[in-house]
Amino acid sequence: MTPFILIPLIIAYCKGYRAHRVFCVCDLYPLLATVLCHGVFIVFAWCGNHYFVQYAAWLQRAIILSLLLPILRRRITYPAYVGVGITLAGTFMNHLVIKANGGHMPSAPTLSRLIGFYRDGQLEGATIDSLHTLFDGSCKLPLLADYIDLGVCILSPGDVLIHSFASIVVYYTVKAVCPKKEKNACA
Questions:
Q1: How far apart are CA 167 and CA 91, in angstroms?
Q2: N or C: which end of the chain has fewer CB within 10 A?
Q3: How far apart are CA 34 and CA 13, in angstroms?
Q4: Residue 157: which of 73, 61, 75, 86 has the closest Cα?
Q5: What does the pLDDT look like over 85-116, one tens digit per residue?
Q6: H-only helix segments in the chain
Q7: Are 134 and 121 in contact (CB under 8 A)?
Q8: Under a CB-based contact definition with an 8 Å cutoff, are residues 93 and 157 in contact?
Q9: Is 78 exposed, middle or buried (0-12, 13-18, 19+ CB in 10 A)?
Q10: Is 112 strand, coil or helix?
Q11: 179 DSSP assignment
Q12: How far is it, in rounded angstroms, from Cα 109 to Cα 121?
């Protein structure tokens, strides 16, 4: 989730907005708190403690709800509607691949395996969750499965679309809160 928060801040900075000023207003504090909580869950998972995986759905809801404050306070409803449309498309893509694979989401750990976040045999036997299985030759719709490996999480194209909603909200919050600089920072 962290890249989906950092990338819009970097883009806004490159477009000439004073992106650091967004931290002076409380609009994004709930989102940052939930992303920090997500980071703590990842650290626990990396250490082999998968207890918090059961709370992943609650954390996803908390992230979505935390986006409501900047949307409502800064009146960025049009970008929010676009973000909701993109999120629905990503959700549809994920449900499509899950249905095609008998109720399971195939995952292909590559970088996660190299850095030790994923250990061999972790997805077999459904010890962590009952949704994900190991990506193999029998996978249907492989282009929609989880193969975008960031090291600590493996995303599908649908997940990228879903998480881009947060990026849209963060970017337009920066745009609404922070004035533009006189000269472009990245030019």
A1: 16
A2: C
A3: 23
A4: 86
A5: 999 999 999 999 999 999 989 988 888 888 87
A6: 2-14, 29-46, 56-66, 68-74, 77-100, 111-115, 157-177
A7: no
A8: yes
A9: exposed
A10: helix
A11: P
A12: 11
Return the residue matching tokens 């299985």: 133
CA–CA distances in Å: residue 91 to residues 95, 101, 160: 6, 16, 10
Rounded to two decimals, what is the model's pTM? Answer: 0.84
Burial of residue 75, with CB atoms counted within 10 A of its CB: 0-12 exposed, 13-18 middle, 19 or more buried:
exposed
Q: 121, exposed or middle or buried, with CB in 10 Å at 0-12, 13-18, 19+? A: exposed
Q: What is the pLDDT of residues 168-185, one digit of tens each?
A: 999 999 999 987 776 655
Distance CA 168, CA 54 (A): 28
**Hey, what are 97's tokens?**
């691949």
Residue ranges of domains in the chain: 2-177
- Token digits for 35? 């992303």
Read off φ and ψ for residue 88, nearest 5 degrees. Answer: -65, -40
Cα dihedral sign, 167-57-39-121:
negative
